[in-house]
Amino acid sequence: MENKVLKIIKSRVSCRAYNGKKVSLKKALEVAEAGKYAPSGKNRQIANIYVVNSKRYVEKLRTLSLNELNCDCMYGAKTILLVGAPREDAFTDKDCSCILENMFIAAHALKIDSCWINQFDDLFNTKNGLKVKKALGIPEDYKIVGSCILGYAQDEESLKVKDRKEDFIKIL
Q: Which of 26, 94, 158, 165 has its CA 20 to 30 A from that of 43?
């Protein structure tokens, strides 16, 4: 019998088309809570998770993406968890990446679809993006390493696990 956690990890995929149904704040907070328990360098816990669940702020992010990238980098998702920490800290990228992975796994375990979106740090460094970042209460010196969009897939067909390369694991 396969371990449940390993089964969840092996069956999780990125979703890039959402059906418009919003994830409840309660569920989004459960996902964020999983991120809170990710490992952090020297247990300093330097990162923050910003749960963007209000229609007003989600639309600010979507509009920023549409204006700067000419696309909706959130694929229609109505909830986004931004993960950031001080830009100059040596552990920022590592700690935030661990948080994001915990959240992706938790979302899948809760039957919520997700995808890593990495454009927001660049978007927040634009003139309009700086205003949105400030409106969200994210410190100016924070780097948004990535974000976890949450929602429910438009169709199940797009959620098939892709093959992994044969020589991925090396035994030494």
A: 26
Structure confidence at residue 29 (pLDDT): 98
Please report, for the chain, the start and end positions of each structural domain, with discontinuous segments joined by +. 32-154
Instruction: Note the pTM of the prediction, 2 decimals.
Output: 0.94
What pLDDT was estimated at residue 82?
98
The per-residue pLDDT of the chain, averaged, comes to 95
Spatial contact of 92 and 47, defined as CB atoms under 8 Å apart = yes
Amino acid type, 144: I
Distance separating alpha carbons of residues 20 and 107, to the nearest angstrom: 17
Question: What is the per-residue pLDDT across 43-79, written as a single tens digit (0 to 9) for each?
Answer: 999 999 999 999 999 999 999 999 999 999 999 999 9
Domain 32-154 matching CATH 3.30.9.10: the answer reads no
Q: How far apart are CA 5 and CA 46, in angstroms?
A: 27
CB 138 within 8 A of CB 124: yes
